[in-house]
Specification:
Layout lengths: L2 H5 L4 H11 L6 H9 L3 H8 L3 E3 L1 H6 L14 E3 L7 H17 L2 E5 L24 H10 L9 E6 L5 H6 L11 E6 L1 H9 L2 E7 L6 E7 H15 L3 E4 H6 L13 E2 L6 E2 L4 E2 L2 E3 L6
Length: 286
Amino acid sequence: MTVKEWLGEENQLGIDIWTKKYAAEGEDFDSWITRVSGGNKEIAQYMKEKKFLFGGRILSNRGLDRLGRKVTYSNCYVIEPPKDEIESIFDCAKKLARTYSYGGGCGVDISQLSPKGAKINNAAKETSGAVSFMELYSLVTALIGQNGRRGALMISMDCSHPDILEFIELKTDLEKVTKANVSVRIYKDFMEAVKKGTDYILSYEREATGEVIKKRVPARALFKKITDTSWDYAEPGVLFWDRISSWNLLSNTEEFSYAGVNPCAEEPLPAGGSCLLGSINLSEFV
């Protein structure tokens, strides 16, 4: 079988994508099937019949490690959330870069970073805020190539963070953070305030100094800002975080907690967690 027979001769876009992003250099279709299936005839047949396909990193990378390539089979990772210190913030950028270099996409939550104006003991005297570092992480995503594609990044922030309005509005400027998606973590107490029409307290305590920064906002106004911005710009997304955190098989285990979500937000993961993706084409089974 050839790739034209598999995808259809008229599907030039699909053929080009397969050639540029999934086939190894000089590899024909049958060799690709053998490499990706690991020589398993049953899996190879499912792939040929389009009944099942692995996630993109397996379709692209499986077997290439035997040729000395440093690659990942996992599509997505969640990086340990950066702590409120410059070393941790840039260590997160380093982890993003390394993950992208192997072919993975990442999610990272920045809720632990100080809001704009918090006092710090260096030349700046006060921090530029959590949102300012999003541009750094977006730039890292833009710089590291992945064989004809760019990495994927999801950045999230708690709805109770004092910088949340800046976070929500950031991507209304189409030239900012162009290589990341953004989502707001929403909690039950916020939704209760929305329903009741009461104020909601944005609060952050800086561990290093004990400084507490608080803002009071009308909950419904904040919720409307989220929904209106999402309607107009398709971002931010919304993560009902306490619900997500409680609906998992290890929710009663204190040692386990989700740290973020993958770039498309369908998979919450712990810090350092990864997910393997695949697709079953149900229409081919009926």
